Amino acid sequence: MVIRPIRLRDARALERELISNRSWLRKWEATNPHGPMSFDTRASIRSLQNNARLGHGLAFAIEFDGEFAGQLNVSSITYGSLGSATIGYWVSERFAGKGVTPTAVALATDFCFSQAGLHRMEICIRPENEPSLRVVEKLGFRYEGLRRRYIHINGDWRDHFCFALVAEELSAGVLRRWLDDQVPPQNAVIPAADRAAALTAVRLSSGTV
Ligand SMILES: CC(C)(COP(=O)(O)OP(=O)(O)OC[C@H]1O[C@@H](n2cnc3c(N)ncnc32)[C@H](O)[C@@H]1OP(=O)(O)O)[C@@H](O)C(=O)NCCC(=O)NCCS
What we know:
CATH superfamily: Gcn5-related N-acetyltransferase (GNAT)
Distance between the termini: 43 Å
Radius of gyration: 17 Å
Strand content: 25-35%
Number of helices: 7
Number of domains: 1
Bound molecules: coenzyme A
Largest sheet: 7 strands, mixed
Helix content: 25-40%
CATH class: Alpha Beta
Shape: globular
Strand order of the largest sheet: 1-2-3-4-5-7-6
């Protein structure tokens, strides 16, 4: 698999994957709290590219066996004394379970630490998203805490678990550490109290308590 900058000619493949993976992605998709989201893939790629030009983000296409498999976006880049950014990702259902996303996250984080001058990478995940929690567990992102109603996802403000890595805790990079089986097993462990608090919020919002 490879990650590479997304380009305008990905628009058609992106649209095809978003449409055919509607039910796979909807539950985890960021939404606009002030109205409906645009489904114009060319406009969304242009906006990602503009962000990249301004130094606010990096937008990657994920390819598997030469096919467009998903997206990885580095957003909220802050340079200077923070030196931090956030990663978001998805792959189409037919590419799930092949280790594509952890590999993409490791490559992007290593790039940001070694080439883009960043020092900290963050990933925030809804408590119910077990496959995504496995991604940070595999790579040893450290659990940092529960953020209440943090991101607008699938039509409402949702709690998120926050995980991060800083460059100083890696000697040879995220990918190398994972491939060498050197990931500290406890890093992504979520304290029982936070799990319970998040679960109660999920049940309340779904009306089951
Ligand atoms: C979360 C996601 C990005 C993981 O990507 P991936 O490339 O499948 O990652 P992995 O191959 O490492 O698999 C992670 C876990 O997904 C689960 N999984 C595997 N195949 C699966 C499948 N066909 N369907 C659902 N989950 C599956 C397994 O628990 C796996 O962990 P394991 O390797 O220990 O068995 C992907 O499931 C996805 O795009 N989901 C929809 C969008 C989303 O949730 N984005 C992230 C928002 S934070």
